[in-house]
Amino acid sequence: MKSTVTCLLIVSLVVPASARERTPLDQAKKIALGSRVVVTLKDKQIRAGYLSEIAQDRLTLEPLVPGSWSGRELLFQDVRKIAPVKEKWTVEEVLLLPVFAVVVVPTVFVYCGILKKNCNPSP
Fold it and tell me: Domain limits at 40?
């Protein structure tokens, strides 16, 4: 009986805390200043820009294209969601792919195949 009551108390305390949604302020604090973000407003408009400032009641977005518009202040009461934009691959990463394919992959085949080293990961 004690264990059942204990489990019910733990579940009643844990579930609401994990199910709670983060506020837009909490979402913004987890994003580094200067990062590209997409902000969804409560009226379903979407704004994109660089996160330049976070205050207690607002955030400021800078334009993606410099000079296209000045910084926009958005109140957290109007914001539904703030999400960082996933960066695409850089030029250096794209240029290193052929190097990886030409150097690393054949090296592994030579090491495991021709030199007969034990490259089998299973025991």
Answer: 22-84
